[in-house]
Amino acid sequence: MTGGSPLIVGNWKMNGTQSTLSELDAIEAEGAHRRVKVVICPPATLIATAAAVAKEIEIGAQDCHAGNGVAFTGKLSPAMLFDAGARWVIVGHSECRACAGETDDTVREKAERALEAGLAVIVCVGEPKEARDRGRENAVVLSQLTASIPTLAGAALTIAYEPIWAIGTGMTPTSTQIEHMHALIRRALIDLYGAAGQSLPILYGGSANGSNAAQLLSIAGVGGLLVGGASLSAESFLPIVQAAAARREQQLCSVTSRRIKNEIN
Ligand code: PEP
């Protein structure tokens, strides 16, 4: 995990009605979210109410359209999402790339428009199973990354590495594979953005849950988690937030003990 507070993002996908919003109350009542950063991305129908219900958890959208104020029936612009109360947006999720035939260029345009509208942007990248089986995962992820992220670095940009074969399957890459991919993404961000690329969070996503969150968050370079299925209820999401809070405490303790040692020596 990198130096900052871990970021835990819940993606509710096509789930949730007004009554589901009580999960937000239950998460906030427990309190661990205050020690990390928690974002929930409900379906668009719930953004405004979720933003009104949530006191500290930030609300995000699961997608946006790159156009603004023009004729796109059924689509939502970043400005409209911001107006509804979203402060984050996920773009380039593999389900959108696959179902909507989204290209890297479209993802980049969405990310750029969303940043302009004041939203923090999470750009998803990740390889399909065949690419990993053929040892092509680095090439696939790097090409997706460089073509999907905004040309100019912005502090409000986050990358989520989500191997497609790990989403909703109960499978996860090994710690070494995750560490390797996060290091590769970090190097590419620095190559593209210079020093600004050093601090952008890189999340891991794909079958994260309460049982594996602590281990995933302990992997070098993992700045947080993007969580699908396990974010749908406070019961399954809270252990993940608690694992992130515990990881943050560990980090802070080791920084403090290093400082004390330096002062003594
Ligand atoms: C996702 O959809 O982004 C995701 C990570 O899903 P899950 O956690 O269910 O694998």
Overall spatial form: globular
Stated plainly, the CATH topology is called TIM Barrel
Q: Based on DSSP secondary structure assignment, what is the total number of beta strands? A: 8
How would you describe the oligomerization state of the chains in this entry? single chain
Ends: how far apart?
27 Å
Helix content: 40-55%
Question: How do the strands and helices of this protein lay out in sequence?
Answer:
Elements: E1 7-11, H1 22-30, E2 37-41, H2 47-53, E3 58-61, H3 78-84, E4 88-91, H4 94-99, H5 104-116, E5 120-125, H6 129-133, H7 137-148, E6 157-161, H8 175-193, E7 202-205, H9 213-217, E8 224-227, H10 234-264
Parallel strand pairs: 1-2, 1-8, 2-3, 3-4, 4-5, 5-6, 6-7, 7-8
Helix pairs in contact: 1-10, 5-7, 7-8
The chain binds phosphoenolpyruvate (PEP).
